[in-house]
């Protein structure tokens, strides 16, 4: 263990923030830390939109299912997968960009995730708290319109940043033996291990601050995965120029 690993293992989602502002220079430093993440073939396909306009923040809150911290957090960012900038690079060199490939969707989306995690770790190292907002994909077309996103750009998730005004417990993760496999995929013992993990998750939900949730991990996942998962996404992404081939 060292300080970096301890920081990583202490991650919690923060949904209540103080009024203390985040200096813009600090935010730029965090974005630079995000830029330092690995990027597929140097494409650097992440664009970050800082949303300051309070009316837009309120509309984005509505789009994300009424999560109040979207409007209230000192900083709200929307992280976008951006292949439009790559098209600009091609245009600058009189090259005809071949777009719409599934691989381009994967690499640009992975770029955003790596960028965001670097930014988040840097933020937490400065005492800031964060929560990812995947809920902006509930009304992704409206979000894209609000942010005036062009073709070949889509919003992957939002990110709230601020100084924490709460101290939630760390949520237990799956046992490493379920996640780390040797040489091939073998889940023959995973059921028993997950059953034990379910007990730990149920205990966490029962005892966490302000919590009275009675649910295990497998129950939570099975309840979620029997429902449709934003079925509008495929048509939207194709309309934006992704996943065409």
TrEMBL record:
EC number: 1.5.1.38
UniProt entry keywords in alphabetical sequence: Flavoprotein, FMN, NADP, Oxidoreductase
GO molecular function, one term: FMN reductase (NADPH) activity
Keyword Lipid biosynthesis applies: no
CDD domains registered for this protein in UniProt: NfsA-like
Highest taxon of the lineage: Bacteria
InterPro entries: Flavin_OxRdtase_Frp (IPR016446), Nitroreductase (IPR029479), Nitroreductase-like (IPR000415)
UniProt xrefs under Pfam families: Nitroreductase
Keyword match Protease: no
Enzyme class, broadest EC rank: oxidoreductase
Domain Nitroreductase: 10-163
Family under the similarity heading: Belongs to the flavin oxidoreductase frp family.
Protein name: Oxygen-insensitive NADPH nitroreductase
Organism: Amphritea atlantica
Recorded name of the encoding gene: nfsA
